[in-house]
Every structure is written in structure tokens, then in C-alpha cells.
## 1
Amino acid sequence: MHPNRLLRLAAAALAAGVLLTACGTGTDGGSGSGNEKITLNVNLFGNFGYQDLYAEYQNSHPNITIQEHTAAYNDHHRDLITHLATGSGAGDIEGVDTGFIAQMRERGNLFVDLGKDRQSEYLDWKWAASLAKDGKQIGYGTDVGGLAICYRRDLFEKAGMPFDRDQVSAAWGGGWDKYIEFGKRYAAKAPAGSAFFDGGGQLFNAVIGQAPVGYYNEDDAIVVGTNPDVRKAWDLTVQAIQSNLSAKLIGSSQEWNNGFAKDQFATIACPAWMMTKIKDQAKHAAGKWDVASVPGGGGNWGGSYLTVPKQGKHIEEAKKLAAWLTAPEQQAKVFTARGNLPSIPALYDKPEIAQYKDAFFNNAPVGQLFTTAAKQLKPQYQGPRAGDVQTTIRDALVRIEQGKQSPDESWKQMVSDVERLAK
Amino acid sequence: MATYLHQARRAGLSRLDTKGSPYLYILPFFLLFGAFGLFPLLYTAYVSFNDWDLLDSGSHRWVGLANYREMLQDAYFWNALGNTLSIWVLSTVPQLLAALWIAHLLNHRLRARTALRMGVLLPNVTSIVAVTIVFTQLFGRDFGMVNWALGFVGIGPIDWQANTWSSHLAISFIVAWRWTGYNALIYLASMQAIPHHLYEAADLDGASQGQQFRRITVPMLRPTIIFTTVISTIGGLQIMAEPLLFASSQTPTGGSDRQFQTVALFMYEQGFREFRFGYASAVAWTLCLVIAIFAIINFLLTRRIAKDED
């Protein structure tokens, strides 16, 4: 025999075999029960303000390690949908924004049913928005947006404008036209490099958030082209852009983050969760920010849910954690620590919430401001592609900001782009 | 009898060894290629003939050529194709010319030659995401370093993302920055294979440096130039990560008016935002076809150009 030859043949066969099996090994996960050590992955976008809560939960549940992964708003939801479609890769808990919850509830069978136990705790519309057609509850509400305007006292003062929050609220209390008037006077004497508001897309979101009907009717048909409220919000935003009041920044972009640091804008449409972003991005301006009431009445922009995808390996533990993170005590803590407004109305009358003042915002009575806003809020129905519709409209407004198109051209293209989303 | 059998078995094994083992050695590649190359390719072709909803647990319906018909009438597809070709030309042509020139310089006796030669490859080993993010900040509208520098010569500020030409220029710059060194090294390697006596003879005949470069170096590099051109064509027409990350919104539409959406990005948008898997697959196959056509055209062109230099 020639051992060499046999050896070589065997080696070649082995090499082939090793490579093949290397591709074939999958990951098998245990069904974490009892005291087995497990890791729960929590996938979120932006800042939900949970860092301290994780530590607290891990202390009381020593077998559980929590890992949070955050991504940008659009990326996060795109990834989640892809992971749902392909059946793997989703976290044990996935955050979902108002703009995407309708798309998710259409795929209710891919999420764990969280039951009806907590229905009575929640705002009715918050509870209903994450309800699948067959009555399954796919998400626990975290926060609601509400609406206010956050503004820079110091910049207003430098431009010789009223800067006391009651005076400011009164100055534009008459409506968005007054807000634009105020902005024009600000712009005339503003410090160099400081626009009145951050960007057209964000202003538009706030205005449309006050309308009874937004992008969809309740039959899930897109009504962007025909809803007069959309056109009104559009015209108003265009007017503000054409008055040179916009810093022309896209919300949550790197440039927008820089804009906070470089004092590029003096006001921003401010749902409660926006306060969290401002605190993260404008650390140098602590105490210089303040909060005034929003023109045009109550409204909502954003707010999120925690869902538990069925494909997760630790469903029971994930459900418990999601329920705990969204429980009243924790929602209250997140509000006072970070700013996200609870979606549980019983909390609105609690003194630690209703009377809460935020030092970062010059001791503005944010508790009173936002709970009042939340109580007045008329919920707006959100359809399947609401998040993408919003992005499409923002791009259309950016085209005007960039001087690429006239408002009419941009509107036409926007309406046809939005209709394309419904395909 | 026993010896005879033994001999026969040895002969058989020997034949199997020489004939069979080469196939066994290359088998892993072909199995992997089959699983991860050929199968997806054919499967994509099948998907492209269906109306396939990625979200609805992959439910699908055979629609024949409908996806392709729709694509040919889709203004956004043609827009993306135009952008792709423009970015590809803007990045590849200067890139290969610069690579040739850098290789020529590196071929001379220089101080710290090895360090320089390795240095040109550095941009290529960096992460594409990190590079794009850094360059996107350099090309920033309000606080970008490029606009700051241009300000000294009285130009700008330019909103790089807003215009078609400026966004293409910026993206091409990112691509070229990353790949020029790689191509330079390939050129350098084949430059060193050119026999030195050719240059000595040219020196004796009084040929200048430039003449030597045009008359000796370029014609001798012909196969390499063809290779790099074809490879850059394949890579350049598939650009996706750069335009995706260059947009400050980081959405796959490539700017507010799709001014820098490439075909690969359009495919991504259709597949993973619209979840129209069939349509995205039709775009993928068309892109594959376009790349093949341009690669062949380039192959023929570069072959001729280099021949003319002879």
C-alpha cells in the first residue's frame, strides 16, 4: 500500500467535509427556564431612557442579563421587518414607533399575544393602536408624544424677543401663523447662524399631529392627496421655509445632532420624547432651554411600544421584562429621569408627575404642560405605512429647502410617491 | 493470485489518486459556489418572475415578465441607472489613471519604498462604513472641511447632498479614495515583471521618461489594465453602501429627489423597504446584465486602446 496516497485522498475528503459541516452548524438555543443564565436582547431606536431600569431589573433577576441595541429610526424598523420576514434575527424585545405599529399589527401572527390584562391601565387609543385584527395585543405602550415647543431662552433674549415661557406661549398661542410671525421677528435680529426652527419635516409632523385625520382614513386608505389638513400643514410649513426660518436639518441625522451643539436653531417642535434627545445632544445648553405650549391645540407625534416577536428564544422572560419596563412605576421613573411621557393616564394626576419641573429646561413645569396636553389629545388613526409616508413628505419638504423644486412641483411628486407606497 | 489482486488494487488506487483527488481538492469550492453563488442566482431569476411579498411569509404568484415590463417603464429605475453610470465613470476613470501614475512613481527608487507601497493599500482595508461616515462629515454643508477649504478660494458653501453633480462627485471621491491604492499595487506588481533591459535600451536610444512610460510600460501592462478595468466595472456598477450612508437621512432613496440613488440602492429599496421581492429580483438580474454588457465593452475597448499604443 502507499500510505501517502491514501493519506492525500483522505486529507482531500476531510477538507471537503470540514468545510461543508462548518457551513451547516446552526445555533441551537435552550428554552431558558428556571434559574438558567440567559441574555435578553432589547432592540430599540433613539433613547427610551431604560439604562437605570436594566440595572434594577438585573439586580432583582440575577439570572438575566439585558443587552440593549439601538439603531436609527428608519434602520431599526427596516431591520425588524426583515427579521420578521426571514424568521430569525429579531431581539427578544423590539421597540416599535407609532409610525410603524400599524404595519406590525398586520403581521400580528409573528408577535406574542400579550393578553388583555393591562387594558384598563392604558389610554384607550394607545391600547387600540397596537391591537391586531383578531384581537391580539402585540405591544405594551411605552410613551405618548404630546406636543409643546422647546425653545432657547438665551437666543430669544439676544434677539430682543420675549423669552419668559408664559409670554412666549401667549405670543404664538393664536396659532401657527403667529408662530411664523414670531419667527420672522426673531430672524430679523437673531444671532448669526441661528435659524428659528430645525427643519421643515419636523415642523410638518407637529402640525399634522394636531389634525383629527392624518395620512390614512380608518379603512387604511391613503388620503394624503385629498385630506385638506395635510395640505394646510404643508402650506404652513412651506410658508415657514420660504420665510427663511428653517435650519434645513433632517431630524435625528448627524447634522441635526450637530445643530443642537452649534445653536443652529432656537425652537423645535417638542413631543415629550424630544426632551430626551435635547438633553442628549445639547448638554452645553442645560438651563438655557425652556418649554412653551404649542400653537394650534393638542396633538401627538410619536410614542412607542415594546413588542415580543414569536421567534425569540426566551418568550416568557421577555414578556415579563416588557411588562415590567412599561409598568406604571417604571413609566413614572422614565418621565422624571428622561422626559418620555407615560401612556398610563392614572399617572397624570400623581403629584410626582403633574408637578414635575425639569432643571434642564429652566425648571419648566413639564409635568403640568405635558399631562395637560395628553389629556386634551385627540388621537389620530395611524395606517400601515405611516412612517414611510412621513419620510416621503419630509423628503418633499427637503427638496423645497434645497431649492431643487417649487412647492407645487414637490407636492405633485410627493403625492405620487406616497401613492406608490400603497402598491 | 493475491499479488495480482494487490497490484490491481494498487494500480486502481493510483489512478483514482491522480485522476480523482484534484476533483476532491476543488470540490469544496464548487459546492460552496453552488450553494452560495449559483443557487441564489438561479433562485433570484425564478423569484423575478413572481409577484413575491417578502412580508407575507413569502407568498407568491407567477406573473411572467410583468416585473421586467414595469421596471422598463419605471422612471425611478432609469434615474438610478443614469446615476450609477455617472458615479461609475466619475470614480473609475480618474481612479485608474491615478493608480497607474502612483504605480509608476512607486516603481522608482524611493526612500521608505515598502512603507509607501503598503501605505497605498491602507484605504482599502478600512471599513467602508467608517470611511463613508467620515467623508460625509468632510462633505458636510454647514461645518464640513471641504466647504471650509473651498471658502478660502471664494467658492461655496456647497450643499453637497442637494445637487446631482455635487453628490456624484463626492460619492465618486469616496469610492476612488478607497480603491486607487489597490489598483496601484496591481499595476506595480506587473510593472516589476517588465524586463529592465527594455528601459535600458530605450535609455540608449534617448527616449524620455514619458515616452518610456507610453511606449513600454502601458503596452506591457495591457493584460493588467484590462483586468483592472473589468473588475472596476463590476464593482463600480454595484455601488450601494456609499450612497446609502452619504444621505444624512440614511434612507435608501438616495437624497431628497433620488439624485444619488444607484441601481443597487433602488433594488435594496424595493426589496427591503417595499418588500417587493420579485420586483427587486428583476432589478438585480437587469443590473447583472448591464454589468456584463459594460464589462464586455470595456474589455474590447481596453484591448484595442492598448494595442494602438504598440
## 2
Amino acid sequence: MSAGSLVARRNTLARALLYAVLLTFAVIYLMPLYVMLVTSFKPLEEIHQGNMLALPQDWTFAPWREAWGSACIGLECSGVHGYFFNSIKIVVPAVLISGLLGAFNGYVLTKWRFRGHKIVFGLILFSCFIPFQIILLPMARVLGILHIANSTTGLVLVHIVYGIGFTTLFFRNFYASFPDELVRAAKLDGAGFFTIFFRILLPASIPIIVVTIIWQFTNVWNDFLFGVSFTSGDSAPITVALNNLVNSSTGVKAYNVNMAAAMVAAVPTLIVYILAGKYFLRGLMSGSVKG
Amino acid sequence: MSFLHINNIHKRFGETHVLKGIDIAIEKGDFLVLVGPSGCGKSTLLNMIAGLDDISEGDLLLDGERINDLHPSRRDIAMVFQSYALYPSMTVAGNIGFGLEMRKVPKAERREAVRRAAELLQIENLLDRKPGQLSGGQRQRVAMGRALVREPQLFLFDEPLSNLDAKLRVDMRTEIKQLHQRLGTTIVYVTHDQIEAMTLASRIAVMRGGELQQLGTPQAVYDDPNNLFVAGFMGSPSMNLVNARITRDAGVLVARIESPSGDVTLPIVRDRAALETWCDRDVILGLRPEAITDPSSANRQDGEIHEAELEVELVEPTGADLYVVTRLGGRGINARMRPGAPLESGQRARFAFDVSRMVAFDPESEDRIRDVEKASAEMPAAALDVS
């Protein structure tokens, strides 16, 4: 046997081992999702038989319908759909506004430098490291003064304020490697502050826009603490509703309905990842080359 | 009144004094090349003309109007950047037309102007492409098209050829020169490449350390350098600079240069009046390689030839010429001989020096030693322009 084929065989073996390890981890990570999915499609009797991993014998969409439209959350029995739209109402403006503000900050901090720009950036960056819990009381007070406590608008404000630190960081690092000569050329061409931003920089920022959207969307959508602290009843986001749904089951636990509701709560972030995921790493890399 | 007048311009970045009083004046249609080593302030000066950097002190006049505080977009100036600076998300047509769009030129008129500029640069077939799909040379053309389309009063080029490969650079150089001749525009061009400066310029400004060293036509800068720096910077291979002593030999003023094969004495014919005062003192002599030849190819009509026998140290054929290195005044010097001259290293050979082209420098100040009448005629135009 030649040395070449020996090496080739050893490589195949190493590769097989690698795939085996990867496959094992994939199975471990996917297991909870699998259990959630199969449980959500089983009737309650089947669940009580005990075999969590078994596929449903009797496929049913009833738990999904119930979770969406008629499950009881507290005293209200109309499912999670209202809270789902609450979350949409929060997440869309919060992501767009914090993203746009972050982009503006990044643009100014790199292309229109002013005295003390480093300190300003440092302070903005500092906000990334403030734990959620610390701002709960002051923020509740601010929302009260602004008369937007217990509303989705209030949550939008909270998420914008909290998100600006991260979005600014992303865009600043991205624009730091954006050539200054382009801005200078545009100035000579007669473009002003906003024209340069909207016509030259923003169209060239797709990778970092995607990163920002994924990051902000996941954070805002998955937020529970702010939601549970600053809203109650009708204006709660879906994460809070999910918690309430699980807690307000009386008598028999409707595991299938709970699982279906949890899936409903998880699907939007999954969709965002699937649609934009391939840009995510690329964008993070491009932002991190220069800082 | 000159067209572009840079009047005693200073630039300070905090404590650092980047430009220390630059005076340059050029006429309409001139091709001014700012040349110098990196960090000499040439790009800063260009950015100040464009309005991208503030002027700390001094006046900038374009066609008689002071434009120090005019916004870049209102100076009627276009610039070609080193990196081309094409807008990545716009098509070539969008890039070229952007300046006109910002100036609210109607769409039809704009399209026509873009088409004309593209035609001039032979990039009509690229108008719908994005910059990412273009080669270096094509990007260069688009960048020039963006400047041309606005028909500005003044063009600025910031090392536009430095990102191209060697062959393309020579082609584009020719093309820029042709374009300048055809359109008769006024150009300020920054480069660190002295060959680019020589071939393109109608006026060269040699800069070093934020100071203007010399302003003049390429030939004047080449033949009649103001100081050691200019002499050494312009020309390739560079000017031979050797230590020599001015003495009198049988009543004739000569320069005596040491060499392993015996001292060489060359008669002083240029700047003789000034060098009289340097008798029995050391100077640095400058002689271009092409002013040291083999006796048979020496220019005896215009020059004044003086021969000497020296030892050949090294022979470097380039095809078109044969460069011969010999030792003089303690340094290796380059002589340009005719190709195929029968020379070998170690051999003794006769060298013909054209002493009419020899220049001398003060070893202390590094300034040129030249006759007074001559000096005043070579002063920068700006200094004479007292109006």
C-alpha cells in the first residue's frame, strides 16, 4: 500500500469521527425542539401515555388553534394572537428606530468627527454593559412621567434606548473601515450631510444592517424582563403572555397547547435567522476588521 | 494676474506645522505637478485647494477670487482620488452623473453629459456596470469621467496612477497628457513619482518637509536645481553628487575631485562668478549620468567636453544604454555610455565630462551656488507677481 493512500485513509477516518461528533451534538441541541414540536401535534391523552419522543399517532392541529385563538391567559380566553401582534408592534419600530439611530451615530462618529468623539463613543459603548435589572426602577419612573407606562409605546422606547449602544457599536465599526475618500468625493460632488448618508453610506451597509436587524429583533422579541415589568394585561408582549398562559392553566396541564404557544413565540426569530443568517457572520466579520 | 494663486499658505495640525508658507502661481491651461517624498505636504496642499482641509494661514485665489472659505462643492473644482472613490452602490453612469444630479441638472441634459464624458474616455459600454465589476484601469477612467463631466475650472489629481500596474500606469499617463492637451484644462496633480512629474507637467513644484524647494518647468528643475534635494530627487538614475575642491590651476578656476586612479580636474564654466568666491573651499558637484559619456558619444556641439581616464567598477547594460559605475570623490558615480561600448569592470577607460552641465552646491546649507543674475531669473513666478 502506498503512503499516499494510507494518508487518505487516515483522513477519511478523522473526517468520519468529526461528523459523528457533530451529529451527536446536533441531535442533543435539536432534541428539545423535537419534543416541543411532536408534543404540540399530539392530543392530550397521547401525552399522558408518557412517551415523550414518540411521533404523534393521531396528528392534530387543535392545540395550535387553541393556543392561537382560545387558550385562557388569566381571565381572558382568546389565545396568544393579540400578544403576538403586541410583540410585532413593539419589535418593528424598536428595531427600525434603534437601527437608524445607531447608523447615524456610527456615521457621525467616523465621518464627521468632532472634539471628544472618542469619549462620546465610549459612553455609548458603556451602555452595552449596564445590566437590565439596574435600570428597571428609573425606567419605570421615566415611563410614568411620559405617561406611556403599561403600553407597547413605552416598551418601544425602552428597547430603543437599550439598543442604541449595540447598534452604534456595530455601525461605527463598520463605517470605520468605510473609505473616507468616498465621503470627500461626495462633498466635492455637492452632496450634503444627509445625502451622503442616505445615498452613499447606507446602500453600502447591507451586511451590517442585517446584523443589526437580527441582533435587535432577537433581543427585543425575546425580552421578558422589560415586558413583565412595564406592561400588564392587554399590552404585554408574547413572552409575558406565554408565561401567563403556562401559569394560568387550571386543573390538567395542557402541555400540547403550551408547546404550540411556545412555538408561536419562537417562530419569528427563527424565520429572521433563516432568511438573513448567512449575512450574519459575514457582517459581524466585516465590522470587526477595523475598530 | 495668475489663474490659480497659492499665496503664503500655511497648515498646522495642532502643534505640527505641515505647510510652511507655500507660494505657487500658475496660468490657465497649466499642468502643475506637486512632487515630493511622502509626508512633504503635497496631498495636504491639494486637499486645501479642494476645500477638504482648512487653510490655517494665507490666501487661495482662483481666477482672482479668494476661495479660502468657499465650500468644496462651490469652488468649481473636481478631483480624482487615489483610491478612485467610486460610489459602490451606484452604476458607472450614476457615479459620473452624481455631481450633476446634486447640482440639479435636468435628467436629459445629465444623461447627455454623462454620455459625452463616457465617449471621451471610451467607457460607453460600461455605463450600466457597478464599480465592483470593473478593472483597475476602468475604475480610473470612471473616476476621471466623474471629474470631467462637470467641466470645472480646475482639476485636481491625487496620485491617480499609484494603484495601477506598471504598464497600465504608463498608458494612462499618456492618456492624461493627451486629455490635457485636447481639453486645455488647468490641472494640479500630486505624485511622488518624479518620472510622472517630468512627463506630465508644464510646471513642477518640488516639495519637502512642508516647504517649496523649487518651482519651474520640468527642464529647468532638471537642469538647474535649486538645491541638493531637488538635484537628487529628480531624475532616474539620479544625479551624481561628488565632493570636490574649487582651486585655481594655471589661472583657470577648476574643481578637483579625488579618485583612486588619480585626481580629476574639471574646469568651471557654469556659475563661474559665484564659484570664484568658493576658491580653495569644498563644494558638492552635481553631474547627470548623461553628462558623463564615452568620448565618441559626447555632445561636442552644445556642451563643453573634458576627458579623464578612470577605472571602470561595474557595467550595467539596460538595453537602450550602458550604465558604467566608476569611483570619484569617494563615491560610485553613474555614467551613461552608448550600448555596446567595449567596457569591462576593472578596466581603465576614458570618460567624457560635459562640464557645461555641471552644478555646484554648498555642502553646509545644501543650496545651489549660482551666479546672481541667473538666480533672480529662476525665482518662482509668485515672488515676481507683485500686483
